[in-house]
Amino acid sequence: MVSRRSFLHQSWVSPLFLFVVVVALAASSADGSRTPRVPCYFIFGDSLYDSGNNNNLNTLAKVNYSPYGIDLPAGPTGRFSNGQTTADAIGEILGFKDFIPPFASNPDDRQILVGVNYASGSAGILVESGKQGGDNVDLSQQLRNHEVTVSRIVEILGSKVAAFEYLGQCLYICNSGNNDYINNYILPQSTAIRNQYNPDQFAALLITQYSAQINRLYELGARKVALAGISNIGCTPSLIATLGTNGAPCVNSVNQLVVPFNTRLKSLISQLKLSYPDAKFAYLDSVRVGTLVGAGNRLIRV
């Protein structure tokens, strides 16, 4: 069973991270006003981006209680941090006045035209990842939830053509893959999958599934897509406490374990650019961002 200590995250914003997202994918407002740089913003991923989708699930991976959210005016909301998530901060930089609502909050027509957050704590690319801690919304289900949203936007705007023209201007961001390692591949009870796949083979398995998921996102109208690589997860408190570091700051073997995934993700993005010249895809280097942020990060421990 996964303890609540396994789901600890930080609230931070890197200027480099935001610069990459805004410049690479979003068109700036010509007049410098607070009009959002994109008309809508859709968020997919795991607990780094989750804003409350796990609140009503039967899972240990939910944080709608103190001390989470201690720096938010509303208090605990289901965010796995003391304050804003990186996805929230990107939305603010893009000019959105309010946080993008979680899908689980049943946003109304006005809200979904601005965007929806589908991210779910403990979720991964693979359906089974993170399920040892209870329910979550894996990435494939997040996409099915997005299909529901797209259908509603078609109804609101009157036609699929109008809806896809609108959706093509929006920003889509996804942070996935962390839990396929933390809460799947490197779990003590996951010897079967480690025996079946070496690290490079497991990365290939993830990218094959991820490729199908991102292609589906394109089919649903996405044309400006940012995909975050896996960060140095060997530096998370839970893995340091569980695996030990032999005197090093982090569990270096785990940090090396995810390198093949990030390498293959970069190659996937290059392929997507060739396959879909009418779309923009960007790689967000989570390892470099984590290095820039340094010791100023604030962790919530429970």
What does this molecule look like?
Strands 2-3-4-5 form a four-stranded parallel beta sheet, with helices on both faces. A two-stranded antiparallel sheet has the order 1-6. The chain has 302 residues and is of the alpha/beta class. The protein has a single domain (4-299), classed as Rossmann fold (3-Layer(aba) Sandwich), CATH 3.40.50. 41% of the residues lie in helices and 8% in strands. It has helices at residues 15-25, 86-94, 109-112, 139-157, 160-167, 178-185, 191-196, 199-219, 237-243, 252-257, 259-275, 286-293; strands at 10-11, 41-45, 171-175, 224-228, 280-284, 298-299.
List the helices and strands and how they pair.
Blueprint: E1 10-11, H1 15-25, E2 41-45, H2 86-94, H3 109-112, H4 139-157, H5 160-167, E3 171-175, H6 178-185, H7 191-196, H8 199-219, E4 224-228, H9 237-243, H10 252-257, H11 259-275, E5 280-284, H12 286-293, E6 298-299
Parallel strand pairs: 2-3, 3-4, 4-5
Antiparallel strand pairs: 1-6
Subcellular location: Secreted
GO molecular function: hydrolase activity, acting on ester bonds
GO biological process, one term: lipid catabolic process
